[in-house]
Specification:
- 38% of the residues lie in helices and 12% in strands.
- The chain is α/β, with parallel strands linked by helices.
- The strands form two sheets. It has a five-stranded parallel sheet with strand order 3-2-1-4-5, with helices on both faces. Strands 6-7 form a two-stranded antiparallel ribbon.
- Helix 2 packs across helix 7 (185-193).
Length: 268
């Protein structure tokens, strides 16, 4: 067994503020990787209990169904309070016992235990405050997961993933790269539709953005827009904070050859 296999657990782990967020915005990547035999997982930070529609127990059943569709290896929920996600844990300079159970420490514990090669995190500019807070919280935890003296309960060995990918949600970001998810797009949308309490358009009851009549249509348009940028039917965008390095550009572009893009961004 190679040294890498003894260091890492999952191939990819996605963090989402609420159940359904990951499915909506990077479900294609997770479905694609699972179909290739990679071990994939999602960690939801909250149960989405403040959602205008549905109940937590309904959301749980929907989450289990969506996880099966995506072929996930792991699905966990940290049960942080919906609407109260805070990158600092909600307090400063806590006593040691309290620090080990703070939100940032809970995320550190997950990272050290599951040891993913790739970590997917919401992009830092978003419409929903919980989405932005999740980005800051997980980014903070990624740093402290490598700090040996940062304590968690239960304790774990320091860990750093190979790479962190940020996934845009409602805001448009200039991607570092776009993943072709054409082959699994039907499966992605099947996983999204598992959340019927959230995404089904309804005339009666609370009106929400994700449950609006054009919600799934706009998601389809988004994936087609990014797909067109690399010359495929459907794509998902990802952002890197670091500069991406390649040892063999020739082999990279041989393995990632795409048709001429159907959309050319304005150079200005």
């Amino acid at each position: 067994m190679s040294p890498i296999a003894t260091v890492h657990g999952l191939e990819v782990l996605a963090f989402g503020p609420h159940p359904d967020d990951v499915e909506l915005f990077c479900g294609g990547l997770l479905a694609s990787l699972a179909s290739q035999g990679h071990r994939t997982g999602i960690v939801d930070l909250t149960r989405g209990e403040k959602s205008s529609r549905g109940r937590p127990e309904t959301r749980l059943a929907e989450t289990e169904a969506a996880s099966r569709v995506l072929g996930l290896t792991v699905r966990e929920n940290l049960e942080l309070p919906d609407g109260w996600i805070h990158p600092w844990g909600g307090f400063e300079a806590p006593e040691p016992e309290r620090a080990r159970t703070a939100p940032v420490a809970r995320v550190v514990e997950v990272l050290r235990r599951l040891r993913p090669e790739l970590v997917l995190v919401p992009w830092w500019h978003e419409r929903h405050p919980d989405h932005e807070a999740t980005s800051a919280l997980v980014t903070r935890a990624l740093f402290f997961a490598a700090v040996r003296k940062f304590e968690t309960e239960p304790p774990g060995e320091p860990f750093t993933p190979r790479q962190v990918l940020y996934y845009p949600m409602r805001h448009q970001a200039e991607p570092s790269f776009v993943v072709d998810v054409t082959a699994v797009h039907t499966r992605k949308m099947q996983a999204v539709r598992c959340y019927a309490s959230q995404v089904e358009a309804r005339i009666e009851g609370p009106q929400t953005l994700v449950g609006s009549p054009l919600s799934l249509t706009s998601l389809e348009a988004r994936d087609r827009f990014y797909g067109a940028r690399i010359g495929v039917a459907h794509g998902e965008p990802y952002v890197l904070r670091e500069t991406l390095g390649l040892k063999d550009p020739v082999e990279h572009f041989r393995r990632n050859a795409f048709a001429r893009p159907l959309f050319f961004p304005d150079p200005t």
